[in-house]
Write a structure and sequence with these properties.
With about 200 residues, chain A is of the alpha+beta class. Chain A is about 35% helix and about 20% strand. In chain A, strands 3-2-1-4-8-7-6-5 form an eight-stranded mixed β-sheet, sandwiched between helices. In chain A, helix 3 crosses helix 5.
């Protein structure tokens, strides 16, 4: 398959992923962005400012591994958060940034992290094989300086065990996977678990 | 393009907007109304009493800049709230009045205004470029006398900085934009932010 | 139009109403029932035990004004609640009995009635033209003896002003209208208002 | 009808059931599994690891009455919970295991069981003919050792009256029926009732 064929195929998958994610209400207005790494290392990523439930092929652009535009289109300011993940994790092939209500509320209700324990659905996360796991989702302060925010994420990853996702306060979350399918499975499972934790927050058990 | 062509195109966009807004549950029963300003200054607006998820071309009418019917159809009682916005803001081309649950609850839980701060999604509002903004959404008392209600809105606008929307207590909200697309983006973002604030209301953080 | 043509048209409308009501989640499992009065006084009503989101023409039957089957099909046990309303209100042409979550919760949270005030959406109810109305929705205890339950409803109606709907505890609600369209508008508006009241119940304002 | 025809028909019904259940949000990520007993005693069941809203015929496999694969495909680890139910209840023809938010929350809010009383919708459960019934849904601790978990369920069933469903903590619930249609009716009714109980939990009545 030529590079161009691969790009078209991936763009179609990102468009379909956007429709699915929007149907759940997880990318309101023009929020969110999604990417997939191509076999030659370039990254297909959604452009800035489009509604993610109404993407067209021209709304998917190509950047290099450092986030520089390869086709003249304007990448989202947050492209650097995608490329940082690809640089750190060689087996990651897809990164999703939804902007869901529950991730937004999470950062208001929990301080520095959410802890997910004793949920069977944790097994939907890669390399987790029992509900008796303790999964930490760090919450980082929002920052319009994406380079500085990326450095905060990098510093966290340097000093902690592998994570499956992180939340940016008031700004949704990032998750990723070894395929777009796996990243979507992570997204759907985490959104469910975030909602569980938020519904249980403050409830007398 | 002739005026008639433009009207038909705009009517189609309003019908599609109505289906989208209704699919979210934001215009229950026959509530809500929507309008777009045509290039010659006339305003295409939904007629009174129709379900906004089931609009047909004949349910879109034309009024002049003062809200007088230009085609014999009966305008909604609230047409004056639309024309007031077009008169004040020359660059506004679309006004949307959804009647959502969260806007309705907002007026019961917050007194005179909602304050939205520290949300990335604020950047979906026009001319906002950081989550570190403080956005005020005023809440006005409901009034069946629309002329009096319009005067209250006018008085507020005369004495405050520009706003992106206002809530009428027990009666949904108004938002607008330099295009129908922008007004829809404002609607979707504000509804998300209203839900965040309502979910956080009274929660021990 | 022949009687048979009218029945087929009405059956089609009831099937479409069922799909709409089910799409909102207001008739879970095989709950709920709907009817329309034909021009000759017979009543088209959903049969017992079918899923209201998946109705077919054969799931709509005919009863006379007293609820006796006219076509050998088995009417729902609650048919008498429909025919009682048609007998009392000569201008009522449609009765809807959804079984929504909010109506079910309402009966647990409020004692004998719900009071709806200061909502613009009250104007979606027939003969209401201002939000400054006070609408009472009585809540009756559930009873498997439908004849006895119908007598309780009749007694209430004999001694109170006209109402737009009533709730049966743990059993959804009944609403009606001068057309199926009006009954659907009542249903959608009341469900919205019930949700408002339930969301506000116990919230510190 | 040949066995192969029956299998194809049943597989189609399981695929449709999966789409319906997923449309409600009750099988997030790749959670949940469903089965139907064929007329010759073999069991058609969803394979491990697929999204239940996107099932294809190849995702439905055949196991014998003890849960052993009959076609070389890998059965879900939880197959034993299905076959245990078929062994105990000769008239059960379908078993559904959704993984809904409300079932997941239920196990956190209620200790050993949920009690459902005074709901008309209890009549959607087989052999229940009045809302004045008291239905107990036991909650079992989650366990990655499915054989041990199946033994706990068996022990409970040996010492209690017949039940319509059971919850596994943090892991959704199991329900069943004399047909797939009945099992789906049970699922829809129970999910509604679980949501009622959870919404009422901790609310001052």
């Amino acid at each position: 398959m030529t590079n161009q064929d691969e790009f078209k195929r991936i763009a179609g998958q990102l468009i379909a992923a956007g429709r699915f994610i929007d149907s759940k209400g997880w990318v309101p207005a023009t929020s969110g962005n999604f990417s997939v790494r191509l076999s030659d290392g370039r990254i297909a990523i959604t452009v800035s400012g489009k509604h993610k439930g109404q993407l067209e092929t021209e709304d998917i652009m190509l950047v290099d591994g450092d986030g520089q535009s390869l086709d003249g289109k304007k990448p989202s300011a947050e492209t650097l958060l995608h490329t940082s993940l690809y640089q750190r994790f060689p087996d990651v092939q897809a990164v999703l940034h939804p902007h869901s209500l529950h991730a937004t509320l999470a950062a208001r209700l929990f301080k520095d992290e959410m802890v997910l324990e004793d949920y069977e659905l944790l097994k939907a996360l890669s390399d987790i094989d029992t509900h008796q796991s303790r999964i930490v989702i760090p919450i980082f302060a929002n920052d319009q300086n994406i380079r500085r925010l990326a450095a905060v994420v990098k510093n966290y990853l340097d000093h902690h065990d592998a994570i499956h996702a992180y939340i940016i306060a008031g700004h949704g979350f990032y998750t990723w996977g070894r395929s777009l399918e796996e990243a979507l499975r992570h997204l759907e499972a985490l959104e469910f678990l975030f909602e569980c934790e938020i519904r249980l927050h403050g409830v007398k058990k």
